[in-house]
């Protein structure tokens, strides 16, 4: 029995962070996928032992995989009636109570009625009677509603049952519903409080119907309740996931408008940073706050899309570093500063990373930055056929680093929602990105390099998958990427001698586009700064 042992499993993004924020005297920190929770449990528990789990926090798939892995060792998984940690959480905040509100057709591009009809056609094809939807961004997308229940994510806590015919039921706190949402969905949706969900699941089971749910996203308790009541379970991927990944024409237009607005705010910030940070008087929290203020000045900012990763010097090597006021590091001369941030606008979600030299960078910094830039450009200018997956393109970003004996321990890119989650599936650019890329999908392109204890480098733009087009002299039409993000790279960190003529041409063309597109939104001093920041490199 491992009653005196505890372990925290993290992936490569959090390895360094965990060492500084977790009591390593209590917790052993292990990185996945090199270390697996099932293997650790099998090594530290004995046959006949049991591991408890919270049915609300683990998905159907997670529990199935872990049960199978532990079965050989004779170790059982047991659902807990209550989570013991909840009992210790004395100062737990009250549930969020922000209102839901409609996400208009001008932004969404498709009505809730159309989306629901598509889902019901999917159910007919699968010969299923109903779909259980528990993913918050799927609920928000399906019903064209937004909220503020999750920090930085404009969703409302709710779930839904969609029958193969008739009106769906949306389980949502009645206090969150105003006349705006009720009016928009009155003829389409039945509203019930969340407390009624269990009885509706039981009713489905009593009728012995077939209920579809996504095992990779649905908490285990819902499947358990349906099975106990007698329902047949059909495991299928949540149909909302793939549908919301492919943006409508309205969402694509919104993304372009959001990035234009956001690009101007980022340029104002970079110009300010060049002047304000050179003497070492600015810290990480102040810098992040300044960027948020420039976004707020647009008058369109709803929220930032995640806690800004504002990392000076060695903190840049902590991939998901979050600055705290009490420990914020100054942006010191002769160092690198990494700022990964984004915004939620009603017409789009942004996510951008820029690495900036504070003072004079070293030759080593310039070399590493340029290697990362080469991979970033390779993805940006890629052309690829239909059925290409994210894992097929991920090596393009890594090859310059690999050739130098370097790499990074995170994916190259993730999907991005439309005024929804800044991390959206199913598409991704990574070794595990097995989903085919489709026109209309938005991804991030963010290779990096991290030298522990010294600095981190990451460069990120959002990119839109374009329709297949003919290539002169070619035989097959190819898809590609449209770069949505508009902001200069730090020319002080670029070593032109390491770039090919094609890479230089792409870089200079991108900088010319940034300059010409953003100048009308800037004042005279900002225009002057941008002209220098985007001057052509030879």
UniProtKB/TrEMBL annotation:
Gene Ontology terms for molecular function: metal ion binding; metalloaminopeptidase activity
Keywords: Hydrolase, Metal-binding
UniProt EC number: 3.4.-.-
Enzyme class: hydrolase
Boundaries of every Creatinase N-terminal domain copy: 3-79
Claim: rRNA processing is one of the keywords in the record: no
Peptidase M24 C-terminal domain span: 477-537
Domain Peptidase M24: start-end pairs: 255-467
GO cellular component, one term: cytoplasm
Pfam families: Creatinase_N, Creatinase_N_2, Peptidase_M24, Peptidase_M24_C
Family in the record: Belongs to the peptidase M24B family.
Protein name: Putative peptidase
């Amino acid at each position: 029995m491992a009653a005196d042992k505890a372990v925290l499993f993290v992936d490569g993004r959090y390895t360094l962070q965990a060492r500084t924020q977790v009591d390593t005297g209590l917790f052993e920190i292990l990185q996945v996928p090199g270390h697996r929770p099932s293997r650790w449990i099998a090594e530290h528990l004995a046959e006949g032992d049991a591991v408890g789990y919270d049915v609300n926090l683990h998905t159907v798939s997670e529990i199935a995989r872990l049960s199978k892995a532990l079965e050989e060792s004779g170790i059982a998984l047991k659902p807990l009636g209550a989570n013991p940690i909840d009992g210790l959480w004395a100062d737990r905040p009250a549930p969020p109570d922000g209102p839901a509100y409609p996400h208009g057709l001008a932004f969404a591009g498709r009505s809730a009625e159309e989306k629901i009809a598509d889902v019901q056609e999917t159910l007919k094809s699968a010969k299923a009677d109903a779909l259980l939807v528990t993913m918050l961004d799927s609920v928000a997308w399906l019903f064209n509603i937004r909220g503020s229940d999750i920090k930085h994510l404009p969703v409302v806590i709710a779930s839904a049952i969609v029958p193969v015919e008739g009106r769906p039921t949306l389980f949502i706190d009645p206090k969150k519903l105003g006349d705006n949402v009720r009016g928009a969905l009155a003829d389409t949706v039945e509203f019930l409080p969340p407390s009624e969900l269990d009885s509706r699941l039981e009713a489905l089971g009593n009728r012995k119907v077939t209920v579809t749910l996504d095992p990779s996203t649905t908490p285990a308790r819902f499947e358990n309740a349906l099975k106990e009541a007698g329902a047949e379970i059909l495991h299928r991927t949540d149909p909302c996931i793939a549908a919301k990944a492919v943006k409508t024409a309205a969402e694509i237009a919104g993304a372009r408008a959001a990035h234009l607005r956001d690009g101007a705010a980022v340029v104002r910030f970079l110009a300010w940073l060049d002047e304000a940070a050179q003497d070492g008087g600015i810290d990480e929290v102040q810098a992040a706050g300044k960027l948020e203020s420039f976004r707020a000045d647009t008058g369109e900012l709803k929220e930032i899309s995640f806690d800004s990763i504002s990392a000076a010097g060695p903190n840049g090597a902590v991939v998901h570093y979050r600055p705290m006021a009490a420990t914020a590091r100054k942006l010191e001369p002769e160092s690198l500063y990494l700022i990964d941030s984004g915004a939620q606008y009603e017409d789009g979600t942004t996510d951008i990373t820029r690495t900036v030299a504070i003072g004079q960078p070293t030759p080593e910094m310039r070399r590493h930055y340029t290697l990362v830039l080469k991979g970033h450009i390779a993805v940006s200018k890629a052309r690829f056929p239909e059925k290409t997956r994210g894992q097929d393109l991920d090596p393009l970003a890594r090859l310059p680093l690999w050739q130098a004996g370097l790499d990074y321990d995170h994916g190259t890119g993730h999907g991005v929602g439309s005024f929804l989650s800044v991390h959206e599936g199913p598409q991704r650019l990574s070794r595990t990105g097995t989903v085919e890329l489709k026109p209309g999908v938005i991804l991030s392109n963010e290779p990096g390099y991290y030298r522990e204890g010294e600095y981190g480098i990451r460069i990120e733009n959002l990119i839109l998958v374009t329709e297949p087009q003919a290539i002169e002299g070619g035989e097959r039409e190819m898809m590609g990427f449209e770069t949505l993000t508009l902001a200069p790279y730090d020319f002080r960190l670029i070593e032109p001698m390491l770039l090919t003529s094609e890479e230089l041409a792409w870089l200079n063309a991108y900088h010319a586009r940034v300059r010409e597109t953003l100048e009308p939104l800037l004042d005279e001093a900002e225009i002057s700064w941008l002209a220098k920041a985007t001057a052509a490199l030879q």
